[in-house]
Amino acid sequence: MKRVIRLALVVSAAAVSLAFTSSAWASYSPSLTVTASNNKPGAATSLLLGHIQSPADDPTAKDTIYAPLGYGVNLSQAPGTKIGDVSARLILRNGGNAEVDVDGRVVADNPANHLNDQCAPGLHQAVWNLNITVAGTPLTVPLYVDAVTAGPEAAFASAKIQFCLAGPIGTPAGAQLELAFFDVNGVFSNPANTSDRIWRATFTPYVAGTPQPNPAGTTEGQAVVPGQVGLTMATKSLKHGVVIVSGRLTVDGQAFGGGLVELYKGSKRIGKAKTKANGKYSIRIKIKKKTRLLSQVFFVGDLPGCPAPPLPGVPQGCKTGSLSFFAFKIGTARRKK
Fold first, then answer.
1. pLDDT tens sequence across 193-232
2. How far apart, in whole angstroms, are the C-alpha atoms of residue 277 and residue 249?
3. CA quadruple 145, 151, 154, 160: dihedral, nearest 10
4. Which pairs with CB-CB distance under 8 Å and at least 24 residues apart come from 251-254?
5. Residue 13: strand, helix, or coil
6. φ, ψ of residue 139 in degrees (nearest 5)
7. C-alpha distances in angstroms, 79 versus 49, 75, 107, 109, 111?
8. Mean pLDDT of all residues belonging to the chain
9. Number of H helices, E strands in the chain
10. Strands 242-251 and 280-286, sheet pairing
11. CA distance readout (Å), 89 to 54, 101, 229
């Protein structure tokens, strides 16, 4: 999902704007986003997980992400296995509040190396190390991963991912997370049905200006992964090498307007168009010969509220909801003779 990660960074500023410009929430309300590479029931899928918050928010101390019921979970990856890639945007509080983008890898580690980690002590089924470099200093953030099979969490979750962040006190250049996206490969398979899948996360901030977590400020965010996403593509060849590429975008069987469809020839984007209210799009291009094309859509958007009842025991309740999806279609355009 490398291309999806790059797209995520491009649209993330818009997603932050959607999530925070029309809100009167308090100074801490991060959003969770979850994007599946494949929505087919029961199929293996890569997932792109995202944390988005406003630069004005308090820094985050801990995230706990819950996969909903129905997902298959494989945590048998050997230490050293690459799980995915990460892209993040940080605010350097000790560097004039400059924003910097960083990239890195997510690699499986031996859980026995993390028995005494303060963030989530004990033996976990898997630990993934998120490795990045901030202001020239390597930084590793362990992610603690477990299938959920018992206890109160088993009523709503199939797996959970926990991680803690140090910052801006104690990080290079006073780095504070603004947004991050990391993909997870070879771990999850979709539920067997086509119902929407609602992921959840709890976010705990630091007490502003201190290295102390603020449990009383913990909030929840919810992310909808649609059970069905469809993108069609057809080509119509005109004279002089002109080709009309058109199609329709549907989500849960309904037309979806406002999705940005991008058209690629190899790795080069050669056109784009937003879908209309009826889900249809049309892109005009010019070719010299038979050309293989890829159309894709990656959407991240704010919901007006949380789509499901909040989790019990979260002090500030659920504050944010998001919708995210990805779809693509491959086709061939031919020059009209």
1. 999 999 999 999 999 888 999 999 999 999 999 999 999 9
2. 10
3. -20
4. 251/226, 251/325, 252/194, 252/196, 252/226, 252/227, 252/228, 253/228, 254/279
5. helix
6. -135, 130
7. 21, 11, 8, 4, 9
8. 91
9. 1, 21
10. antiparallel
11. 11, 4, 28
pLDDT in tens, 27-79: 899 999 999 999 999 999 999 999 999 999 999 999 999 999 999 999 999 99
State the pLDDT confidence band at 5, using cuts at 50, 70 and 90. Answer: low
3-class SS of residue 239: helix
pLDDT at 2: 56
- Lookup result for tokens 């997902």: 71
Q: Which two tokens stand for residue 311?
A: 């989790």
DSSP state of 279: S
Q: What is the pLDDT of residue 24?
A: 35
User: By the 8 A CB rule, do 122 and 143 touch?
Assistant: no
What single-letter amino acid sits at 143?
A: L
Query: 């059970």: which residue's tokens?
Result: 227
DSSP 49-62: EEEE--TTSPPEEE
The Cα–Cα gap between 149 and 152 comes to 9
The dihedral built from the CA positions of residue 135, 30, 327 and 244, taken in this order, carries a sign that is: negative
How would you classify residue 253: left for phi > 0, otherwise alpha for psi between -120 and 50, otherwise beta?
left
Q: What are the tokens at 163?
A: 């991680």
Residue 13 has pLDDT above 70, yes or no: no
Give the tens place of pLDDT for each residue, 233-244.
Answer: 999 999 999 999
Report residue 19: phi and psi, to 5°.
Answer: -75, -25
**Predicted structure pTM score:** 0.91
Distance CA 216, CA 83 (A): 33
